[in-house]
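User:
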Amino acid sequence: MKNTLTLKSIFFALLLFIELNTIAQDQQYTQFYSAPTLLNPAFAGASAQSRLSTLYRNQWSLIPGGFKSYRFAYDHYAPSINSGFGIIAGSDKLGTGSLKTSSIQFQYAYEVKVKRGLFFRPALQLGFVSRTLDFGNLVFYDQMIRDGDPSYEAISYGPAKYFDASAGALLYSAKAWMGVSVYHMNKPNEAIYNATTEIIPTRLSVHGGVRKKIKSNYYSKVGKDMVLAFNYQAQGKFDQLDIGIYTELNPVVLGIWYRGLPIKSNQYQHPNRDSFSALIGFQTGNYKVGYSYDITTSQLALGNTGGSHEIS
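Assistant: Predicted structure:
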């Protein structure tokens, strides 16, 4: 009995320590260009027609209880009022589904014509988020010594529900774009343990890109463009840079991306590098589908993460 109480005390001490020292971070996507309203609410309604996007990401697929994320995004432009509207619904699952975050975000962007072919769009995003922990998927020490009977633990946990506010701005033309977005401006508390506070740090994103026509006799027949893009993000103590290039060779899309800041070390004195990503996609008419695979290059690679898979 004494050993049981001791182990329970250690368990709850560790749990409390983890809660108090967690720095929440947003999920990231390799194919953010496939659902640009995830990158910046100012992209809402920036396309020539209404747009529906979906993303699924399985991060570090060989690590038990890894991350799985889903996003569904829709946006539309109303030319009569120079306004774009968007909605994003998402779900993140961690640890065999025990920890789950669900969210819905609403976006509004207003378009201002700077000059012919150049536009500026300020935007606002408001949303609601729910974070829950399913104790049915957890096993406590007293269950192990009593052959799986229900645990006697009674923990003060409950769903965390909070309001989330973000904003963005975008300057773009047919050949280039530059934007900035700021997420979690109200720094919400997402702690599910009632005795703790877990503030989500504000996330800054600076992003841009250029699009260039491929000129050759062959490519003039099949289309298409070459796109160079980047996305710098900073949240809490962490930052990173995504930079890549992809070509649109109708009907095939090919690309390669790098994520990290190798000239900078992280707080553990390791080089700030994360992954290389390769992607392939197909497009026909108004439909596009893409697959990307991230090869882990950080210290996690020593444990064989299995990389990350993403479908858009």
